[in-house]
Fold this sequence. Notes:
Helix content is about 40%, strand content about 25%. The protein contains three helices and five strands, in the order ββαββαβα. The chain has helices at about 15-30, 50-65, 75-85; strands at about 5-10, 15, 35-40, 45, 65-70. The strands form two sheets. A three-stranded parallel beta sheet has the order 1-3-5. Helix 1 packs parallel to helix 2.
Amino acid sequence: xxxxxxxxxxxxxxxxxxxxxxxxxxxxxxxxxxxxxxxxxxxxxxxxxxxxxxxxxxxxxxxxxxxxxxxxxxxxxxxxxxxxxxxxxxxxx
Length: 93
């Protein structure tokens, strides 16, 4: 059964490259979802390498006919997202 969307909540206050790698494996395994949504409501800080990993994940998902969106960005992660102008390559809901 194909679902339209699945949301994965990041539970930690930090969002690092290692977290992004684990999320990527989880997202890749959700083959029945056309949209993968990453909820970063609990993330108070993030690294640029974590966002870079998400950009690569989105590229892979798009090749497979699926997509990635971010929700609930705030604090330092939101600032990092804006400074790096990621809105064009890593969309938010």
